[in-house]
Each structure stands twice: as structure tokens, then as C-alpha cells.
Amino acid sequence: MEDPIFGRSTAELFFQVLPRFADPLIGDDLIIDSVILNLPYAPGAFYGNIAQIYDVDVRRMDVVVPNDDDYRTDTTFSSLQDPLTTARYSPTADSITYLNYKTPTGQLVTLPTLRIPLSADLGLEILNIDSLTRNSDDRFIEAFNGLHLQPTSLNAGMSAFDLISPEAGIFVYYTSDSLARQYHLDVASASVKFMSTQHDFTGTP
Hints:
Layout: E1 2-3, E2 7-15, E3 18-19, E4 31-48, E5 54-60, E6 85-89, E7 96-100, E8 107-111, E9 113-118, H1 120-127, H2 131-134, H3 137-143, E10 147-151, E11 157-161, E12 169-176, E13 179-186, E14 193-200
Antiparallel strand pairs: 1-2, 2-10, 2-14, 3-13, 4-9, 4-11, 4-12, 5-6, 5-10, 7-8, 12-13
């Protein structure tokens, strides 16, 4: 963000995800319908000019970050060079409605959120993680270290996400035995959720 009062600020997010339920229900056939990173906006989430296009790289972390350490606000962690995707979006407080398949028929969820599509290959990788790994938080974090959100545009505003929302995380939507299902990797309370910030106050009052 570039602001006449606060100067230039950069904020990056690092967070781990864990299975909300231990094992996905997979029959003989499996079709990945979509994979979505869902990031609900936090209350009072916006500052400055949000009527712009914002760009952010979604990267995969390549280091296991202990959840019992203290970190400085300028601490960063390593992630893979090639992003999983680059999202372009305009922050908005308007709610959107989507289906959540917590039940066999699905239920509608309405809230202000950013939904970033990820690849079907990632969804297949997640579903293919073995049961022993899925049932151990430590093993799962070793297999899937977490995500890194890195802004790639310089804008005149900022937005914040509610990572402790039960709707936050990676959702793998798939069809198996002709039934629509989902598998949710939650930004769980026991996992690392960390914002790294950098500030440059040059030229500010």
C-alpha cells in the first residue's frame, strides 16, 4: 500500500491448513470439480482506496513453521518460486452466495469473501494424502507446509481476511459415486497464521 500519511507498507500472509474432517468420502469414481481458496473478509477489513485491481501471488510454503514460537512482525518464511496462481481482484464488502457441501444436498453460504480458484491437480494431491498423514496434524503439516499470499501490485489501500472463520481455507469440491462432496482444509486454531509487514516512512509527515 502507498499512503500519503503511512508511507509505503507491504503485508504478506503465511498460514497453515489442516483437515477439518479426517478422511474424504471417495468411492470408485472421482472427479475434481473445483478447488477454491476461500478468504472471508474481516469486519472493518478495508482501508484506503479499494476501487482498484489488486494482484496477489498464492504460493506454497516449503518450510515447516513451528506453532509454538514467537515471531517478529517482519519475519518471513520461504515459499516455492512458482506460484500456485496469481489472483486479480477488487476488494468488496458485498456478500456473495455459494454452495457448501457440509450436507449431502449442500447449503447456501452468504458472506463477503474472496474466492481464489486453484488447480485440480492440487485438489487431487490433497485427496490422495494417506489416512495416517491426514489423522496427524504434525504429519499433515510436513506433507503440506501451508500457503503464502504475496501482493504483487502497489495500491492505495489494504484489505484484511478473517482466517479464523470456519469458512476460511482450501475447499476441494469433487464428485464421487454421483454425489457432490467437499473436503475442507481449515486454517485451524492450532495452526500458524502470521502476517509479515514492512514499512517505509520516507517522505511522510
